[in-house]
Amino acid sequence: MNNNSKPLFTSGEFARLCNIRKDTLFYYDEIGLLKPEITRDNGYRYYSANQLYLFDIIAMLKECGTPLKEIREYITSREPASFLALMEENDKLLSAELERLMHIHRLMRNTITLTKHALQTEYNVPFLKACPEEYFIAMPFSKEYEDHERNQSETVKALLEYLEANLLGEEYPLGSIILKENLCCNSYEEDFYCSKLSAPIQNPLLFVKPAGTYAMLNHKGSYETLCHSYSVLKDYIKKTGLQITGNSYEHELLNYLATGESDNYVIEISIQTG
Q1: What is the pLDDT of residue 82?
Q2: For residues 249 and 191, is the Cβ–Cβ distance under 8 A?
Q3: Across all residues in the chain, what is the average pLDDT?
């Protein structure tokens, strides 16, 4: 800093205060974005303390994705109304980004919980459990193509795109739903792919899993061996004197994201009984 009554900083000092390179300051000077308060005859640049606040605004707008050209236009024609409009627009952008990050955080946190549960649970043993009402965004299984795998991939793709566009879904793994009429006919192909919600919402794809007693089994193994677990679970329901009264829900606890071996997949199966 020099010894003038008005505090001034050399370009090196100012760059350190702003935590940027001097080259960045020189570039901002070149494009007319942030020019020094004073430029001496010898070419030395000096910046004022007030310009620290101006730099903070530039950095904030840049972080929000505002093009440097638009920031320069604001800098060169500063007035209260345009400043307010600029701040309000970027506040909207920050709010949307914050919502997106919070959604990602929920996904991550819930996936951690699922993975811990999968590592601690007992596998391939049926049991009964009273379950609360649960909510899903459910995409009907596509039947547009003759090939089952093509329909499967198209359904998953459509659901993932829908979830991303609407910031919905609470867990990374997708689930699936088999309707009661198909389940009772020993057909175990998915009728819906779904993603869990923490609460019901107004949405045409909302699917409600009723509260009640469910026969459950944590299947460990590949999807190709799921039929065996369904047979075990259905025999268990019969032996306990219950009947299938609703749909089956498959919930991935461990999948390809956590393990490269399909034999180590863990899929929670729950069938509504009564």
Answers
A1: 79
A2: no
A3: 88
**What are the backbone angles phi and psi of residue 266, rounded to the nearest 5°?**
-125, 120
Counting Cβ atoms within 10 Å, is residue 189 exposed (0-12), middle (13-18) or buried (19+)?
exposed
In sequence order, the β-bridge partners of residue 209 are 134
Distance CA 179, CA 16 (A): 64
Alpha-carbon gap, residue 233 to 248, rounded angstroms: 11
Banded model confidence at residue 1, pLDDT cuts 50, 70, 90: very low
**Residue among 210, 204, 229, 205 nearest 219 (CA):** 229
Give ∠ CA 240-223-249 in degrees, rounded to 5: 50
Going by C-alpha positions, the residue among 127, 128, 126, 132 that lies closest to residue 274 is 128
Q: Is the pLDDT reported for residue 218 higher than 50?
A: yes
Residue 90 pLDDT > 90 = no
CA distances from residue 155 to 152, 191, 192, 224, 248 in whole angstroms, order as listed: 5, 10, 8, 19, 18
Task: Quick: pLDDT tens for 189-216.
Answer: 899 999 989 899 999 999 999 999 999 9
